[in-house]
Amino acid sequence: MRLAGLVWRCSVHGVSGAMKRLGIDRLDTEQRLSLIEEIWESLDEQSIPLMAAQHAELENRLVDHESNPDDVVPLEELRKTVLPPRGDK
């Protein structure tokens, strides 16, 4: 997952004490997004709790997939329809 390409409106007003102590408030946007990505990737996916609604949605999707295993779109086809061609910005 690459977050650094996303554009967000951010404000450093009200920065927490921890952000100041760690120097995060002095990082530019690209550096902060890279840090977020690094922290996210360091988490053990088994330890991230799901809300009840998220768990229910995953269960529904699994049941749907098991009921309709051929109702899928190949990844390359999905990429063609969702992602812009490489080189376009």
Structure explained in plain terms:
The structure is a single chain. The protein starts with 16 loop residues before the first helix and ends in a 7-residue tail after the last helix. The longest helix has 16 residues, at 52-67. The model is unreliable at 1-12 (pLDDT under 50). The protein contains 4 helices and no strands. It has helices spanning 17-22, 29-42, 52-67, 75-82. It is 49% helix and 0% strand. The protein has 89 residues and is an all-alpha fold. The chain has a domain at 49-82. The relative contact order is 0.08. The radius of gyration is 19 Å and the shape is flat.
What is this structure, in a nutshell?
This protein has 89 residues and is mostly helical. Helix content is 49%, strand content 0%.
What pattern of helices and strands is seen along the backbone? HHHH
**Overall geometry:** flat
State the helix count.
4
SS-derived structural category: mainly alpha
End-to-end C-alpha gap: 18 Å
Main β-sheet, in a few words? none
- The strand count comes to 0
Give the mean pLDDT: 83
Name the helicity range: 40-55%
Outline the low-pLDDT stretches: 1-12
Taken as a percent bin, the fraction of beta residues is: under 5%
Q: Rg to the nearest angstrom?
A: 19 Å
Question: What are the defining features of this structure?
Answer:
mainly alpha; disordered N terminus; 49% helix; 0% strand; 4 helices
